[in-house]
Amino acid sequence: MGKWRYGVILDAGSSGTRIHIYRWLNSEKARAEASQNELQSLPVLDTDKEWTKKIHPGISTFGDNPNDVGPDHLEPLFKHALEIIPEEEVRNTPIFLLATAGMRILPQLKQKAVLEQVCSYARETTDFQLPDCDLHIKVIPGETEGLYGWIAANYLLGGFDKPEEHDHGKDHHTYGFLDMGGASAQIAFAPNATEAKKHSNDLTLLRMRTVNGEPMEYEVFVTTWLGFGVNQARKRYVEALLQASPEAQELPDPCLPSGLNITTEGKPITPGSDEEVGRKPHLLGTGNFPECLRQTYPLLDKDAPCPDQPCMLHGVHVPAIDFDVNHFVGVSEYWHTTHEVFEMSHKDKAYDFHTYQKRVKDFCSQDWEVIQEGIKEKKWGKKVDETTALEVCFKASWLISVLHDGIGVPRVGIEHLKGGHNGTKAVLGHAKEKGFLDPFQAVNKIGDVEVSWTLGKMVLYASSEIQAPPEALAVGFGSNEPGIPSDFQYAGGKYVPLSGNLSADEDWHDTLFKDSPRRIPGLLIFLLIVFVVLFMLCGRDRRKTLRHRVHHIFGRGSGSLKRRRGFGGKLFGLNNSPTYERVLESGEGANVFELGEVDSDNDHSDSSEGSRVGRTSGWATPQIKAGFDHGPPSYFDNNLVTQGAGLGLSPPSVFSNAIERGGLIARTDSRERMVGSGHRSRTGSPTRMRSPMMTSLKELVD
Fold first, then answer.
1. What's the CA gap between 562 and 210, in Å, rounded?
2. DSSP state of 403
3. Peptide bond before 652: cis, by omega within 30 degrees of 0?
4. Measured between alpha carbons, how far is 177 from 504 in angstroms, rounded to an integer?
5. Bridge-partner residues for 441, per DSSP?
6. Position 266 in a domain
7. What are the start and end residues of every segment in region (Disordered) (predicted)?
8. Feature table: binding site for ATP
9. What's the confidence (pLDDT) of residue 617?
10. Given this model, what pLDDT does residue 365 score?
11. What is the pLDDT at residue 344?
């Protein structure tokens, strides 16, 4: 087992499956090379946008033909991973397929058949570490996805490792996390000390581990709202229109641009269709955004019974949020709808309620024909097509309602926080420009790294591999109780020592043959100096003999040189000699390490149904058991989802029946293989020069 550890996660969403590959130093190596600050931080993970790949459509489409999911869907993803991870590390690399939106709508039998085929295909065609299919290949609930997202956001923002630079007041230094997909929405945050004490039984205890083995614990509230994703909310909205005017054939819709006629499923009205001849009702856009806001408000279900005060939406309990210290970042639909139209993807602009609402109102009040002309002219950016323009008025109205009327986020630009922002001058200087000290900020990337829940999962896993004293408590999450509660979800990793002494040989190779252009010229100068010194010391007669031999060798022509495989041939890349090439870094592929561009497919943060529970001998992450209702992710589908009771993380609702397990050894592939360049060194290594082509996720935000 080498110095680098790898991990592979397949995010199986509704529109497709995206593979993510992460890399970090073996914990023993990381501890040996870490500075004092790094010892007190979480492990440093590396990734690259070239290390991600997405395949369409989602695996849920194989419900009727599960045997095809391997060759028709997974094969290119596995091939991609095997091209990146060193061959000798494949057996040490765990692979996870964690399904979110699409798989949750499949019947249980079809869901099980697809997951079994995924695991069988992975075992038959690869050597990835996959000891327990039920724990590695599964559907995760929305709460787990939200917790992983909270970890990823705070990891990238520095809330974990640099609390003094993120002091929001009242000893609070983490950020809240909001996620919204098509079927559900999630919230995750650490309440202030008063609320945490008052609602301690409702919180999830999250335990991670720093590089020096010290525990890092947080009490986090996480919950999901089923049916509150944009697609499901739209379905409920259209149903309300139909119920309000059951006899009408033309239903005025203030959440559509003026003059737009579509079916209740959101499709164009075709000649001769039931809608055109009056046999079925259709929607007519009126472009009245204030009225759209008024009609979406009831969908929040604020009047639902609240058995456990306080509640937010649909009677779901949520501890009171102190917006003086709780600053939220929102991903997925929060980003797409607030920035991809009205900010044209200007990621550094903070969300401003007053400005945003004015832009939405101006956009949605235009005639549909005017909007179509603007789309052709790319007036609102290259990502805005007719589908986006058709949906954005309702989506914007729904986001505003959820954020401000539902969650209670203050309206920046209209409402003011008591006392303003609490934080040090350094914090304001560090984060003010990007708005992270505002009550809410929509984000896609932080420091050019996509905020993905898969990153949070792997950060938790990597920290579980760090060596700790025998009495140390395990890494993972569960009920907020002392010790290891019965529903504790183990992160899955375990400490694995380095095999042999890798420092000398590996560092020598990394130093000489790393991809930095400074390495080879330095080596050539060193060899030239050695040659000159030896030449001068060998005496006049030997120098004369050596000159004759050199002349004799080079005078024989190039044919004999091509057959030589000595050190000179290897070093200078002569024919038939081994060459060092960097497979990853050719052309545009040699970019700073970051996740790939996010797809606006709304397949994030959706609720789960029927999580799978299994047992293992201590190699894998345990399964979380939860049952959720949901509906198809189509934006205008008429099949309405039935809203269930709010599901939080308090015991024993979500995290139950988990079996205590040992760790899992993680690994993923790198295209930095030998035929190619050597491995890279960790940030801050005192023994190696650093290549400009490799940047850790932590450095990108620091």
1. 52
2. I
3. yes
4. 44
5. 329
6. no
7. 597-619, 672-702
8. 182-186
9. 31
10. 92
11. 61
pLDDT of residue 338: 87
SS3 category, 373 = helix
pLDDT at 569 over 70: no
Respond yes or no: is residue 391 known to be catalytic. no
CB of 143 closer than 8 Å to CB of 108: no
Whether pLDDT at 418 is above 80: no
Neighbours of 641 (CB within 10 A): 23
Q: Which residues contact 352 (CB under 8 A, 6 or more apart)?
A: 412, 413
Q: Write the DSSP string, 20-79.
A: EEEEEE-HHHHHHH--HHHHTSPPPPB--GGG-EEESS-GGGGSS-GGGHIIIIIHHHHH
Active-site entry in 50, 145, 165, 465 = 145
Q: Which residues contact 57 (CB under 8 A, 6 or more apart)?
A: 15, 16
Mention every residue, 6+ apart, whose C-beta is less than 8 A from residue 620.
Answer: 94, 131, 132, 135, 136, 492, 661, 664
143 CB-near residues (< 8 Å, 6+ apart): 186, 204, 222, 223, 224, 624, 626, 647, 648, 649, 654
Candidates 17, 63, 155, 8; CA nearest to 599 is 17
DSSP state of 434: G
Domain span at residue 543 reads: 517-581
Count the neighbouring beta carbons within 10 Å of the beta carbon of residue 541: 8
- List the structure tokens of 436: 């992270």
> Is the confidence at residue 234, as pLDDT, over 50?
yes
The yes-or-no verdict on residue 326 having pLDDT over 50 is yes
pLDDT at 37: 87
For residue 657, count other CB atoms closer than 10 A to its CB.
Answer: 13
pLDDT at 584: 34
Mean pLDDT of the chain: 75
Confirm whether 571 is domain-assigned. yes
| Residue at 525 is within a domain | yes
Q: Which residues are annotated as a binding site?
A: 182-186
**Is residue 669 domain-resident?**
no
Between CA 508 and CA 433 the distance in angstroms is 43
Token pair 């529109």: residue:
15
pLDDT (tens digit, 9 = 90+) per residue, 64-109? 999 999 999 999 999 999 999 999 999 999 999 999 877 888 899 9
Q: What is the token pair recorded at 221? A: 């509230």
| Nearest by Cα to 298 from 643, 567, 674, 581 | 643
Residue 237 has φ and ψ, to the nearest 5°, of: -65, -50
Residue 219 confidence (pLDDT) above 90: yes
**Digit-coded pLDDT (tens) for 21-56:** 999 998 888 988 888 888 999 999 999 989 999 999
